[in-house]
Amino acid sequence: MAQRIQGTEDLFGGYMRAWQHMQDVARELLGTYGFDMIETPAIEQVDTFVHGIGASTDVVRKEMFRVFSGALMERLLESGSEGGLKAKQRMAMRPEGTAGVVRAAVENNFVPQGGAPAKLWYAGAMFRGERPQKGRLRQFHQVGVEWLGASDPAADAESIIMLMEFYKRLGFPAERLQLRINSMGDAECRPAYRASVRQFILDHADEMCEDCLERAEINPLRAFDCKNDRCREVMATAPLAKDNLCDGCAIHYAKVKQYLDEAGVTYVEDPTLVRGLDYYTRTVFEVECEGSRVGAIGGGGRYDGLMELEGGKPTPGIGFAVGFERMCLALRSLGVDVEGEDPGCVYVACTSAAERDAVFSATLALRGAGVRTEADYQGRSLKSQFKQADKLGARLCVVLGSDEIAAGVATLRDMRTHEQGRVPMGELAARVVEKLG
Ligand code: HAM
């Protein structure tokens, strides 16, 4: 039997309804902030991610799924190297949404010189070759937001306010959410800060793990995220970004906090929060749900250099993404129903095959009136049609027998109260709609 790949999930039934609900909540909330939906391809040129996310990040170095057509794969196996491939032949599944949206913004000139900011949101599958575990999948789903062209710290604060409101509307109690924020500096102050963290790691080389020594050379700030206890102890005394901000970054960060305070958003400043993607500048943030043990349920930040890295004009940007599967796990751990109600239906049953044509006409009329309608397509007995109606969560059952057909009526049965009565066929759809309220 064919099996799904480890770290992937089938979304169906209540789980699918939960995913659709999250998108509906996002559409309504983000709409009030002026965001429009965008869908970018799930595959992009590798360079889009290398330029944006960063060649030295784990996401790009270790986790990105590469895509080759069968023919290309054959050529590669023959030649033994991908050196001869053109940029457009080097493709990957998107590990996140930001790089692709920014690539689309550059390609389609979403933010022309002097133009208004582009405000975009998306919902879709992302792919990362991570070791699968609870809340860590190889194919997972994100709702994400990208706000391009806004440099004002109010945009940072409003992004965070939107994010927290999104959780609230999904049923997260505010007191269970922990929002951590930090400022990572910008092109002016970060290079010196990176160098000081690199030097700090090298000065403590004999106390730190091999991975951190490698990080010192390629991405020193990631050492703050090392899972090794000893490294964590050492990094607790490392220089912090907040003490090394240039004036512009310090003023920006203070303003973001002022707006969050004014909006009543509770946050914790975490000077070790560095995030796993290289494009961030200034504000970064992450949210966890206490007690859920699934890791971050969302995160984001400012990325003022990304448009340029993707080949566009200098354009500031900020955004965030939330993970659908982790939010479901967290909500379930809180006892919040994520699946919502089964939509139910109206079931049209018949006493024998002779009424099949009448069933066809009745379902046509009911569906025409917008009623979710089911019927039997397998020649079942009346008893087993009723059973099936129950299984499908039917609230009403329309029964058609020879008597009904002869009298031009249908029997309408309420599946909860078992009350039933006859209605003229011509009024069936209207009466059903009325009964369903
Ligand atoms: P991220 O922190 O890498 O940020 O991912 C955002 C969220 O996606 C995480 O907080 C988590 O809930 C979920 N997630 C990430 N990886 C996995 C996984 N392997 N399995 C299940 N869920 C996962 C970004 O992706 C940025 N693009 C966010 C952003 C948008 N920054 C600015 N704009």
TrEMBL record:
Enzyme class per UniProt: ligase
InterPro entries with a match to the protein in the record: aa-tRNA-synth_II, aa-tRNA-synth_II/BPL/LPL, Anticodon-bd, Anticodon-bd_dom_sf, His-tRNA-ligase, HisRS-like_core, HisRS/HisZ, HisRS_anticodon
Binding positions (L-histidine): 96-98, 128, 142, 146, 275, 279-280
Location in or out of the cell: Cytoplasm
Chief localisation class: cytoplasm
Cellular component GO terms held in the UniProt record: cytoplasm
Keyword terms: Aminoacyl-tRNA synthetase, ATP-binding, Cytoplasm, Ligase, Nucleotide-binding, Protein biosynthesis
GO biological process: histidyl-tRNA aminoacylation
Domain Aminoacyl-transfer RNA synthetases class-II family profile: residue ranges: 1-343
Membrane spanning residue stretches: none
Pfam name, any one: HGTP_anticodon
EC number(s) recorded for this UniProt protein: 6.1.1.21
Oligomer status and interactors: Homodimer.
HAMAP family referenced in this protein's UniProt entry, alphabetically: His_tRNA_synth
Family that this chain belongs to: Belongs to the class-II aminoacyl-tRNA synthetase family.
Protein name, as recorded: Histidine--tRNA ligase
Record gene name: hisS
